[in-house]
Automatic annotation (TrEMBL):
Organism: marine metagenome
Pfam families (alphabetical): TerB
Domain annotation Co-chaperone DjlA N-terminal: ranges: 31-147
Entry protein name: Co-chaperone DjlA N-terminal domain-containing protein
Length: 152
């Protein structure tokens, strides 16, 4: 699966290029991603258990985390989302540190959360599109990724 190969590439890239502060930067990457996923879950003004479970499993899979690590990251991301004024701090870090394929993986995860309850709310759709734009993912790629997730 595309997500798995990109996950491996991301981990290798993080390990190879982040230097001494790799743990801190890796955590910022994980937290930024998780916070965006939480924001999509909350975009329709309700926290759905299905969407929460999807986020938990995506974090475990994408970042190769234990249940405990994913739970802690999800709790921290929820707190960050509560305090966030703007998405740009999260998206800027991701944009500056990820390849286009890795950004596509993030967008894929966002769509998986938005579509988890089989109902794409207009607010979820808008937020995924906004984040994609901030990550400089083209509209064409955004739609291709959405359709791939939707029809899996």
């Amino acid at each position: 699966m595309m997500l798995k190969s990109l996950k491996n590439l991301l981990h290798k890239k993080l390990d190879d290029t982040l230097g001494q502060d790799s743990d801190q930067r890796k955590h910022v990457l994980q937290l930024s991603t998780a916070t965006l996923l939480v924001e999509v879950m909350r975009a329709d003004y309700r926290e759905d258990l299905t969407e929460n479970e999807v986020i938990f499993h995506l974090l475990k899979e994408f970042f190769n985390m234990s249940n405990e690590e994913a739970t802690l990251l999800l709790e921290e991301a929820a707190s960050e989302a509560d305090q966030a004024i703007s998405l740009q701090g999260f998206t800027r870090f991701l944009h500056e540190n990820l390849t286009i394929d890795e950004k596509h993986s993030i967008v894929e995860m966002l769509w998986k959360v938005a579509l988890a309850d089989q109902n794409l709310d207009k607010h979820e759709d808008h937020l995924v599109r906004k984040v994609s734009s901030l990550l400089y993912v083209s509209q064409r790629d955004l739609i291709k990724i959405r359709n791939r997730v939707k029809y899996q």
